[in-house]
Amino acid sequence: MKLEKVFEKNQEWIEKKLSIDPGYFQKLSKGQNPEILYIGCSDSRVTAEELMGLEPGDAFVHRNIANQVIPIDSNINAVIQYAVEYLHVRHIVVCGHYECGGIKAALEPSDMGQLNSWLKTIRDVYRLHRKELDAIQNAQEKFDRLVELNVQEQCLNVMKIDHVQRSWYKTKLPKIHGWVFDVRTGKIIDLKIDVEREFNELISIYGLNITEE
Ligand code: CO
């Protein structure tokens, strides 16, 4: 792809938007009020808005390798705090995807330099669910299951954050959802993780005892 093409495509997009609504960009510049915070993988095949059929302004987006929510990552902490405290998003979606390179790399021990520490938390997910994963004979099924379990653990990591607990205590929002995008079919699969139930089991460990201010 030639990069010049990007600017041509951009111009086409502007014209298309304006032909439907001449005030489109004027409205867009007024501010954002997204209902969803989407946390997904950086993988080029797994776009955020396009696969959900969303438009600019619909979703606040954070992407990193293997859609991880790492508590000491100040980037994701800032994104979540802003989304919860200022944008008041109603939903936080953690969306993994099958055939995720980050998950695959974590399954295959090798020294990947800078990536080692990033992949470590996926290996932690493996360790937490080792019994279940090691019982799966088929390598593809095991790979797929680790993708799903990683989503589940990252949903729980969202719940461990103080801003999220504070908001939950007051409003029971945002709702947290774990999804997997199947790159083999294009389908988004809702893992139907009962984050509230999962978290209640762990509250004695991760609850921050946040009371109403
Ligand atoms: Co990925």
Task: Please describe what this structure looks like.
With 213 residues, this protein is an alpha/beta fold. The protein folds into two domains: 1-30, no CATH class; 32-206, Carbonic anhydrase (Beta-carbonic Anhydrase, Chain A), CATH 3.40.1050.10. Helix content is 51%, strand content 14%. It has ten helices and five strands, in the order ααβαβαβαααααββα. It has a five-stranded mixed beta sheet with strand order 2-1-3-4-5. A hairpin with a 6-residue loop joins strand 4 and strand 5 (188-190). Helix 5 packs across helix 6 and helix 8 (139-159) crosses helix 10 (195-206). The chain is globular. The mean pLDDT is 93. The protein binds cobalt (II) ion (CO). Cobalt (II) ion (CO) is lined by residues 41, 43, 66, 97, 100-102.
